[in-house]
Amino acid sequence: MQGQDRTALEILRRQYFQLVDPAQLRWADIQTLKSPDVQAWIYSHFFNPDHVTYAPPERYQLRVLKQLVGKLEAAITDPEEDEISDDLMSTFSELVTASLPSESTSAQQKAYVTYSYPLQGHDGDSTQTGSVTLLEARSVISGAGTTGLRTWEAALLMGSFLVSGKGRNLLRGRRVLELGAGTGMLSILCAKYLEMSGILATDGDEAVVDAIKTNFFLNGLTGESKSGPIVRTAALKWGRHLTQHTFAEDHGIELPDVILGADVTYDRSVIPALVATMRQFFEASPAIQVLISATIRNTDTFEAFLNACRRNQFDMELLDFALVPEPAQEGPFYPTSTPIPIWRITKAQPPEDR
Questions:
Q1: Helix (H), strand (E) at residue 7
Q2: Can you supply one Gene Ontology CC term for this chain's record (predicted)?
């Protein structure tokens, strides 16, 4: 395969394992797809159970394969010259005749989702791709009423910032805490690929924290490695009193240097407790930096968060980190129709110290 074809197929593979809606998949051109070598590559990397460890749900596989087979059948002009891979057709037949759950049932079930990030070297060049595999629910809200069982857009953008040169420099050698970690995607990304000394993934829901532990395990993070960063999970209720001593005693890690929060401001009712927790961290360690990313679905709700920060006299900086247009995204993939700002929040310094 030529380099351009390989790049297009690699982007398609990343979309597939992130479970991007099949209607939004960016297929390679039909001449590339018709190649026997390319069809063999797609089968091996997408559908071969001996090669694929964390496969998408079978119903999703069927939807994608149906598109591919349809494209190939429509492009055949000479049946003796153009063939569809026997492996692809056999897999398609098996999925068509299998007893699969309905679309609505499938959406409620947990599935493996893999997010891919380009990793920058110290020279600023992208040298490899990092991946985080999660077991998550694709439905918007689970039966338990929590939104913490899937990864949201603001976390994906925050991850892109963290693996950038600026983000890596911010985290290098530091202790990190994630508030409202949900699936734990950001914490796992930090622990696997960024040079920090420790990570504590927290959420207010015990069931969500248990799910984070599962996702840590999927990514080889057990907290037992002597060479890697300290990796911890904990339930953390916002608004509850904390001190430097009790924090270290409760969680086995010193106070963080950097706090991350992605899509934690969507509910106006939790904003007072969230800001109170930020204030307590600042009081325990004034040098802490907080990064908050938010998908602005409701302008008034996010403005309430900013106003609460202003009332507490926090210093706030809107980071210059733009969304990547959807046609140019190479992983992770997220919609850009709604703004997703990232704010850096710190404790205000006395005038004489500025």
A1: helix 3-17
A2: cytoplasm
Half-sphere exposure (Cβ direction) of 252: Cα atoms closer than 13 Å: 12
Task: Find out whether 110 and 136 touch, Cβ atoms under 8 Å.
Answer: yes
Distances in Å between the Cα of 3 and the Cα atoms of 7, 9, 10, 38 are 6, 10, 10, 13
Domains for the chain: give ranges and CATH numbers.
3-106 (no CATH), 139-353 (3.40.50.150)
pLDDT digits (tens, 9 = 90+) for 252-277: 889 999 999 999 999 999 999 999 99
| Cα–Cα distance measured from residue 18 to residue 23, given in angstroms and rounded to the nearest whole number | 14
d(CA 150, CA 160): 17
Q: Judge whether 175 and 229 are in contact, CB under 8 Å.
A: no
Residue-wise pLDDT tens digits, 160-177: 999 999 999 999 999 999
Give per-residue pLDDT as tens, 277-332: 999 999 999 999 999 999 999 999 999 999 999 999 999 999 999 999 999 999 99
Biggest alpha carbon–alpha carbon distance for the chain? 82
**Torsion sign over Cα 56, 62, 67, 68:** positive
Residue closest to 341 by CA, chosen among 289, 293, 308: 293
Structure tokens at 229: 């960063």
Handedness of CA 206, 208, 211, 212 (dihedral sign): negative
Q: Which of 342, 277, 266, 261 is nearest to 312 (CA)?
A: 277
For residue 275, what is the enclosing H or E element? helix 271-284
Give CA 264 to chain center in angstroms: 14
Exposed / middle / buried, residue 327 (Cβ in 10 Å: 0-12, 13-18, 19+): exposed
Q: Is the pTM here over 0.85, yes or no?
A: yes
Residue type, 149: L
